[in-house]
Write a structure and sequence with these properties.
alpha+beta, BirA Bifunctional Protein, domain 2, YbaK protein, Rossmann fold, 3 domains, nine-stranded mixed sheet, five-stranded mixed sheet, 16 helices, RNA-binding
RNA sequence: CGGGGUGUGGCUCAGCCCGGUAGAGCGCCUGGUUCGGGACCAGGAGGCCGGAGGUUCGAAUCCUCUCACCCCGACCA
């Protein structure tokens, strides 16, 4: 392709709206342009990458027996009423104003609708139906460029089985296909077991990649593969020390000491000798949550332990409940439920708030002094703590969800009446699974993982073109001729090549654009090398450069691409 | 939805506090010089300053309302 004929509006400066790397480079490289918050147009280069990702997905889905559908984005609302998801999605679902339609945020209902009309017998199962299409969600806050948009491309597939045993097979097929897809795309990913949330069902896994643009915080152990959202992640840590003798309770005057750090500094003690208090409300009654030192309360775990929704107490409520303000609250004398983190189990000689301002209580022995104290895992895992599986240190970082696979079970087939007849004539709901991949996220995540200060660095699998041929100084006719000849030579040999044939762009401009656009191999045809019948070949990723005879260029490039 | 920020030529931004003929750099067009890491010289085009209303002799600038976009949070299949 001649670059002079391709629409690639590159930007030298960082557009004001872009913050995350992938967004910046996609914009600067002329891959995408914004149309509104969370709405993007894909320009020719960007769309080429999207199509490559789709093709990889298609191949792997077809390989497990998937059949591609093309489904409407415009859906009659009443179909969504059948499963109650109009209400479930709420404001996230787009509603059409002048007709009773919604814009599909996903397609379980539509698949199930067709299945109930078409699938009758166990003989017709299992099935895997998939689609790669635009979905619409009225995100309250689109962000990070293409990573969270109001309209986005998603591969969604749906499995239909006669039993949970065969569902497991379909699920496993997808699990394997997903590993292949993300592997082929060149992504470094990991898998998190997750609760299936509002999708319903019995099991699910998230495919994730580490990224500062991520929206989820996860704990990950690379050696053994343990990975969990930090909301539920666990780690192995030492409990607080129990000293041989429990002191009596005593008050300590601690004027203006509010935080654990201040307390430790004031008394010159270790944070493990302290118990931090946090007050929450559960069902309108106060609950004191005791944590060791500065450990963070994990509200997800707390809700689970208490068994109901919680909210933090407002600062102005604290004094009524405990007699003190935040910073001086503690378990001794606290009227109401108290729950402590497991790390504090057995702890004695602890220091905590005295429930009167500017005082702390020392010598607390939780077993002795706090009756009916419950313990639960309430803390948030921190980096460096030991993996619960293999004891190696855990990493904690943010990550982006690329794909999610669910065992749906019969949630949709039940509510929509999608049944099949078994061997004995009995009627049963179809057992379903659903499996999504965010296509643009694959692109964005790849860039997040593969870039440098100059621009993107594509892998062979996703690159819009494998080779970027830069003709330099093309105002000189003999140089234009020579580099055009090289272009034709490569093109005729079947290489995927973008030829920067712009007549008046300077060398520096071409170099910088090429690094920004990120094709894996650059071929630089400059005057000096051409005079020796040579060109320079540069590997984008490593910066390695080779002088190559034009006659042997084809085989050299083949060999090089083989290795990339 | 709460908090913060920003809207001025295609892009990045200055000007706003303290009202008085709308600016710079990059990009674009013309001519010339350069020609392997975003070059230089000369000339040129392009903006009713997000929108509406108000105050004023006069508003990019002050006031009110509104819209859009970005960031943090809430939410998130």
């Amino acid at each position: 392709m001649l670059q002079s004929q391709l629409f690639i509006p590159t930007l030298k400066e960082v557009p004001n709206d872009a913050v995350v790397t992938s967004h910046v480079y996609m914009l600067r490289g002329g891959y995408i342009r914004a149309l509104g918050a969370g709405i993007y147009s894909f320009l020719p280069l960007g769309y080429k990458v999207v199509k490559k990702i789709c093709e990889i997905i298609r191949e792997e889905m077809d390989a497990i027996g998937g059949q591609e559908f093309h489904l409407p984005a415009l859906n009659p609302r009443e179909i969504w009423e059948e499963t109650g998801r109009v209400e479930a999605f709420g404001d996230t679902m787009f509603h059409v104003k002048n007709r009773d339609y919604v814009l599909a945020p996903t397609h379980e209902e539509i698949i199930t609708y067709h299945a109930r009309k078409v699938v009758n017998s166990y003989k017709e199962l299992p099935q895997i139906w998939y689609q790669i299409q635009t979905k619409f969600r009225n995100e309250p806050r689109p962000r990070s460029g293409v990573i969270r948009g109001r309209q986005f491309l998603m591969k969604d597939s749906y499995s239909m089985d006669t039993s949970y045993e065969t569902l497991d097979k379909s699920y496993l097929l997808h699990d394997e296909a997903y590993r292949k897809i993300f592997g082929r795309c060149g992504l470094k990913f990991f898998v998190v077991g997750a609760s299936s949330g509002a999708m319903g069902g019995t099991g699910s896994e998230e495919f994730m990649v580490q990224s500062p643009a991520g929206e989820d915080t996860v704990a990950h152990c690379e050696p053994c593969g343990y990975a969990a959202n930090v909301e539920v992640a666990i780690s192995v840590i030492p409990s607080v020390r129990r000293e041989p003798v429990s002191k009596d309770l005593y008050d300590i005057s601690t004027p203006n000491v509010k935080s654990i750090d201040e307390l430790c500094q004031f008394l010159n003690i270790n944070e493990r000798q302290t118990a931090k208090s946090r007050v929450y409300f559960a069902n309108e009654s106060p609950v004191l949550v005791l944590m060791s030192g500065n450990d963070e309360v994990n509200e997800t775990k707390l809700e689970k332990a208490i068994g109901s929704g919680i909210r933090p107490a407002h600062p102005e409520e604290l004094k009524d409940i405990s007699g003190a303000d935040a910073g001086s609250i503690g378990p001794i004398g606290f009227k109401g439920k108290i729950i402590a983190d497991l790390r504090l189990k057995g702890g004695n000689n602890l220091i905590s708030g005295a429930n009167k301002n500017d005082f702390h209580t020392g010598g607390i022995d939780l077993e002795r002094d706090v009756k009916n104290l419950e313990f639960a895992d309430l803390r948030t895992v921190e980096a460096g703590e030991s993996c619960p599986n293999c004891s190696k240190p855990l990493q904690v970082f943010t990550a982006i969800e690329l794909g999610h696979i669910f065992k749906l079970g019969t949630k949709y087939s039940d509510s929509m009446g999608a049944n099949y007849i078994d061997e004995t004539g009995g009627e049963h709901p179809i057992v379903m699974g659903s499996y999504g991949i965010g296509v643009e996220r694959v692109m964005a995540c790849f860039i997040e993982q593969s870039h440098d200060e100059k621009g993107m660095i594509w892998s062979k699998a996703l690159a819009p073109y494998h080779i970027h041929l830069l003709g330099l100084n093309l105002k000189k006719e003999h140089l234009l001729e020579a580099s055009t000849q090289i272009y034709n030579q490569l093109k005729n040999a079947g290489f995927s090549v973008l030829f920067d044939d712009r007549i008046d762009a300077q060398a520096g401009v071409k170099f910088n654009d090429a690094d920004l656009l990120g094709m894996p191999v650059q071929i630089i045809a400059g005057e000096r090398k051409l005079a020796e019948n040579k060109v320079e070949v540069k590997v984008r990723k490593t910066g390695e450069r080779f002088d190559v005879e034009i006659i042997s260029l084809n085989s050299f490039i083949s060999g090089l691409l083989e290795k990339l």
